[in-house]
Amino acid sequence: MLPGIYELPGAVLLIFGGLLACLAGHRLFKVVLGLYGFIFGALIASSTMGTSNTIGMVLVALAGGLVGSALLVLAWFVGVAIVGAGLAVLAAHLVWSQVGTGDPPPVVVIVVAVVGAIVAMLLQRYVIVIGTAFGGAWTVIVGVVNAMAARAGRRLTSGDNVWIPYPLTPATDNKWIPLAWVVLGLAGAIIQLRYTSRKR
């Protein structure tokens, strides 16, 4: 979470980072990892601070962002495995929601994640392209939804002065989100495969 005054600049950063990942994630993979590491590190670190301490929240967010960025950039090959595992787990959840009820058993999730990580290491280029295209597309959508809320002057709850971006459920009442995610993700993957991910 961050102070509420940073909602619009934070949303713009999410949109910019998402577009960078979506359209050039393979070519700029280390940059994308650094940017996402900063975002996640800042959000995780700032959630440890009280909402009344604005300066402390910002300083902790910056420190956590720098640590998160450094960790992902230094271990970029681990990032490839994480992308593969994440995509495999997402696919498992989507399939399970169509054939079963609730969440898949933990054993299934673990096996699928391990298989996804192994496949990702074998097919690095394609996994990076697909993972960054769809991950970037989702980040753009989260940024757009938060920017729209900030422009409309909506707060999370009355009296709440913090901004908490919800990366998995940006706005469930908007029916355009799944279609926009798929279209933008496919467009990003095609652009990367045809142009930006090719070796010079």
What does this protein look like?
The protein has helices spanning 7-24, 29-46, 54-74, 76-99, 106-122, 124-152, 176-196; strands at 2-3, 162-163. It is an all-alpha fold and 200 residues long. It has one domain (2-196). A two-stranded antiparallel sheet has the order 1-2. Helix 1 runs antiparallel to helix 2 (29-46) and helix 4 (76-99) packs across helix 6.
Q: Helix and strand layout, with pairings?
A:
Blueprint lengths: L1 E2 L3 H18 L4 H18 L7 H21 L1 H24 L6 H17 L1 H29 L9 E2 L12 H21 L4
Antiparallel strand pairs: 1-2
Provide a compact summary of the structure.
The chain is mainly alpha-helical and 200 residues long.
**Which structural class matches the secondary elements?**
mainly alpha
Number of helical regions:
7
Q: Please list the strands of the largest sheet in the order they lie side by side.
A: 1-2
Looking at the chains present, what oligomeric state does this protein adopt? single chain
- In percent, how much strand structure appears in the residues? under 5%
